[in-house]
């Protein structure tokens, strides 16, 4: 673990309550938010036991006009919030898609600085803003040696190929599907030692590169890769220059997963995949020093930390 603010015992985030507690505990609990101990103690008596989040379960018992967002998030977080159904919600220059139950989601970048502002216009025209603090994290340097020299200093023709391939992947991240697969409690796509963490500044063979955009899990070549949550396959190519076998699964509302360096891809673009389904196999294709799965997540073009998405689950 490398981030600076240690989570409080028994909970990770404080919940900004723009209203009273009654009724609302059920929604967060099902949505996978950990509650701070005080709130937990207050609400434990009325909360059901933890359940896998899905958007139907997230339906509030009664309609209300409160906004529910965490008071504070870490850099790289996926943030779930709740607004009155039918509201118009904007954040970071985007209008957020809302589910029929008023669930919204967005990502917080590695270098985001708070407070974040979410603006809400309710169906009756009333306006409210939620402010969310951002806890900064440490990003230690990671030196990666022994990658093929041609992947660190590519010749011009290869650099052009890399640009083209990255543009194709970027295009797959533009979609904003109505599916709310992101409300599931995410599971690890493979078991194994974490060999690279999100956000670390990286130096490849001594040359500074982009920060690490996901989480690396060491596993033997051929190990099945499971879908961490349901979604739709939006990109599949077994031979990209830097990332090798590359697969993207879209979880709705701009949230997507990418799986890199694969030795095999078992699904094709347009396929619906369910959580836990085998979608690919671990490999060491592209710029890689050994067999591992690189699992990245994004909110549109904002990279988010899969580890925080996993920890969101009680
Ligand atoms: Zn990686």
Low-pLDDT regions = 1-61
Query: Whole-number radius of gyration?
Result: 20 Å
Structural class: mainly beta
CATH superfamily of the largest domain: Glucose Permease (Domain IIA)
Stated plainly, the CATH topology of the largest domain is called Glucose Permease (Domain IIA)
The number of distinct β-strands equals 23
Instruction: Name the bound molecules.
Output: zinc ion
**CATH class group of the largest domain:** Mainly Beta
Distance between the termini: 18 Å
Helix proportion: 10-25%
> Percent of residues in beta strands?
25-35%
Shape: globular
- Helical segment tally? 5
Mean pLDDT: 83
Chain-wise SSE layout:
Layout: E1 15-17, H1 24-31, H2 37-43, E2 68-70, E3 72-74, E4 78-82, E5 88-91, E6 94-96, E7 103-107, E8 116-121, E9 127-135, E10 141-144, H3 149-152, H4 156-172, E11 194-196, E12 201-204, E13 207-209, E14 214-218, E15 224-226, E16 231-240, E17 244-252, E18 255-262, E19 264-265, E20 272-273, E21 278-281, E22 292-299, E23 302-304, H5 306-311
Parallel strand pairs: 3-9, 10-12
Antiparallel strand pairs: 1-2, 4-7, 5-6, 5-8, 8-9, 11-14, 12-13, 14-22, 15-21, 16-17, 16-20, 17-18, 18-22, 19-21, 22-23
Bound molecules: zinc ion.
Zinc ion is lined by residues 196, 212, 214, 216, 294.
List descriptors.
314 residues; mainly beta; Immunoglobulin-like; Glucose Permease (Domain IIA); eight-stranded antiparallel β-sheet; five-stranded mixed β-sheet; 23 strands; globular; disordered N terminus; binds zinc ion
């Amino acid at each position: 673990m490398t981030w600076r603010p240690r989570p409080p015992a028994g909970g990770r985030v404080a919940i900004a309550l723009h209203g009273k507690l009654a009724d609302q505990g059920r929604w967060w609990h099902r949505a996978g938010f950990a509650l701070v101990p005080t709130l937990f103690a207050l609400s434990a008596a009325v909360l059901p036991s933890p359940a896998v989040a899905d958007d139907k379960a997230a339906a509030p018992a009664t309609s209300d006009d409160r906004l529910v967002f965490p008071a504070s998030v870490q850099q790289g977080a996926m943030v779930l919030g709740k607004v009155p159904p039918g509201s118009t919600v904007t954040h970071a220059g985007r209008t957020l898609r809302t589910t029929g139950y008023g669930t919204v989601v967005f990502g917080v970048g590695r270098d985001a600085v708070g407070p974040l502002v979410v603006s809400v216009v309710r169906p009756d025209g009333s306006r409210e803003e939620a402010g969310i603090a951002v806890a900064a994290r440490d990003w230690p340097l990671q030196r990666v040696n022994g990658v093929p020299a041609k992947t660190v200093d590519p010749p011009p023709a290869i650099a052009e190929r890399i640009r083209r391939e990255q543009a194709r992947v970027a295009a797959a991240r533009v979609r904003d599907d109505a599916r709310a697969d992101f409300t599931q409690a995410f599971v690890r796509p493979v078991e194994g030692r974490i060999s690279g963490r999100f956000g670390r500044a990286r130096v490849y063979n001594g040359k500074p590169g982009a920060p690490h955009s996901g989480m690396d899990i060491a596993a033997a070549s051929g190990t099945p890769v499971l879908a961490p949550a349901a979604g739709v396959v939006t990109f599949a190519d077994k031979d990209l220059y830097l990332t090798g076998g590359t697969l993207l699964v879209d979880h709705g509302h701009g949230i997507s997963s990418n799986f890199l360096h694969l030795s095999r891809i078992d699904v094709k673009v347009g396929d619906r995949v369910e959580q836990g389904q085998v979608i690919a196999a671990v490999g060491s294709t592209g710029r890689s020093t050994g067999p591992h799965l690189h699992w990245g997540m994004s909110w549109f073009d904002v990279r988010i930390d899969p580890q925080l998405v996993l920890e969101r689950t009680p």
